[in-house]
Structures are given as C-alpha cells and as structure tokens.
Amino acid sequence: MSNNRVTRRQFLNYTLTGVGGFMAAGMLMPMVRFAVDPVLQKKEGGDFVLTKQKVSELTKTPVKVDFTFEQVDAWYKSDVTSTAWVYKEGDKVIALSPVCKHLGCTVNWEGDPAHKNQFFCPCHGGRYEKNGENIKGTPPLGPLDEFEVKEKDGLLMIGKTRPNTLV
Amino acid sequence: MFWIGKDVEVFSAQKEFIDTAIVPLTVIDGSPIGMKQSASAAEFLMSLTAFVEQQFKGRVMIMPPFSYTNSMVKKDYIQAIDEELKLAGFKYIFYMTSDHSWTSAAPELSVLWLPSIPLGDMDQSVKQSVLSDQIRQVVPMLSSKWSEL
Ligand code: FES
C-alpha cells in the first residue's frame, strides 16, 4: 500500500511540472503558429488573389488590374487594393508590380506622354521598358518585380511578387 | 512614407527625393449632430491620404493627423507644425482636410480641401474608384507645386 502512495514531494513535483508545462505551451504555441502559419496558409491556396480580369481579354498592351487584400499600414488597417500591370507576350501572361524600384511610388504605363511604350514614375521621373527593365540614367537601379500568375475559370489570379525573370 | 520609425530612417537618408510632407487636418466634434459627420470625414481623409501614400510613397511623407476642436485656436498650432516640418527638411508642406474653414483660415499655406464622401458603407471596389477619382483632383495640385521652382 505505502508503495503506491504519492508523497507530498511527488505531488508537488507533478503538479508544478504540469502547470509549468502548461505555461510553456502557452508561450510556445503562438510562436510555433507564427512560424508555421505561412506554410499552413499556402496549403489552402490562399496566396493567390482572384481578379476580375478575363485572361482572354488581355493584349500586348499593359492594363491595370486591381486586386484587394487586407493590410495593416502604420496605424491604419484596411482592405488594400493593389494593382498589377498585365499584358500578354505571345501566350504568356505577364504581370508586373507597379512599385517603383527607386523609392516605391506607383508607376504608370505611358505615364509620360514624351516616352511612349514605357512605364513612368511620377515621383522622380524613373522609367522602365515594357518588360520592367529600368532605363539607365533614371533613378531606379533595378527592374520592376513580377507577380506570379495563375488562371482560374478564365480569370486571372495574382500571387506573390518575385524578382523580374524577363530582364 | 508614413511617420513611422522605419520610413523616417529612409527619409533621413533620402531627403533630396522625399521632399514633401502631407498633414491631414481633422476636426473632432463631440456634439450629437456633428459627431458622425466629423468621424466619417476623418475616415475619408485617412483613406485618401493612405492612397496618396501608395501612389507617391517615394516622394511624400504622410504625417499623423492633426486633430482639433472648433474651440481651439488651431491656426497657431499649424504654424508651429509648419515651422517644425521645415526644420525637419521638407521643401513642400501640404495640408489635406475636409474642413472648409481652413481655406480662409490659412491662405498662406498649401491647403488641399476636399469635400468628404462617406465611405463607411461602400464596398471595397466602389470605395477604390471613389478614392481614385478624388486623387485625380489632388495630383494636379501636388504637381503644380512640385514644378514651381
Ligand atoms: S520613386 Fe520612382 S523614380 Fe523615385
């Protein structure tokens, strides 16, 4: 009988380890979730945002395509609408990020009437070729990023940005 | 850029390019009739300035909004803010507001007045097109100052 009795010390040991473990788990779980979350999200296919743009209507001329996701910007949290410049090169759909590689303004296709067939940044006159290549002598030092693209039921889906693969 | 630590670091290093500060001016009205209107005007202005930031990130710094009540001598505060921002090195300082009283209160400052549009119940894509329309009014005002020497 006495063999099975839990001593005061053992009892305290068990309970304290239990509580300690619980607390540790409380701290670790969110950390683990933060680390694992992006991976989990990817499995749900949630990295691509569906747009209203029909892939069949795209041409050689870049058009602005809007897509919306939630973002926290400084003190201001909101649904943010981003844009991509999308065109077709043969059968391939190309979506370029509008974010200027100089200091981050939004570039426009043929935004400067003096430079046809180029992207133009209104902030300091940065310019890019249609494939995103920065034009020497203007402030930007690298090409525009590219978005990953997918098609779903004839509509364009836009994913993450990656370094330009066309230049 | 926003007035946050990370962006201000970039500003300090790139002052020749980031030369413009934009201060949103929002009235706080606590009266039962004025409250909703003042809140949705602030909401509109915050969305609009965030959109301006997205378009002109590399050139403008959006400051935290200056909030005041109608009983305050708001002009004095603005003059102090104006001087402080000049000191910080901004070449152009704009004030954006939906409060019409500023257009006569501070004629020597660059006040961009835009009538507020209640965005509260709008769906994101409608909101976006309203804001794009509004921004089309703002851009010429910015670029006309930028092209002055
Ligand atoms: S941010 Fe585009 S040229 Fe400077």
TrEMBL record, chain A:
Its cofactor is [2Fe-2S] cluster. The keyword Cell inner membrane does not apply. Signal peptide: none annotated. One of its GO terms (cellular component) is membrane. The chain crosses the membrane at residues 12-32. Keywords: 2Fe-2S, Disulfide bond, Electron transport, Iron, Iron-sulfur, Membrane, Metal-binding, Oxidoreductase, Transmembrane, Transmembrane helix, Transport. The keyword Cell cycle does not apply. The main subunits of the menaquinol:cytochrome c complex are a Rieske-type iron-sulfur protein (QcrA), a cytochrome b (QcrB) and a cytochrome c (QcrC). PANTHER family: CYTOCHROME B-C1 COMPLEX SUBUNIT RIESKE, MITOCHONDRIAL. Belongs to the Rieske iron-sulfur protein family. This is Menaquinol:cytochrome c reductase iron-sulfur subunit. It comes from Viridibacillus arvi.
UniProtKB/TrEMBL annotation, chain B:
It comes from Viridibacillus arvi. The lineage of its organism: Bacteria, Bacillati, Bacillota, Bacilli, Bacillales. It comes from the Bacteria. It holds the Pfam family DUF2487. This is DUF2487 domain-containing protein.
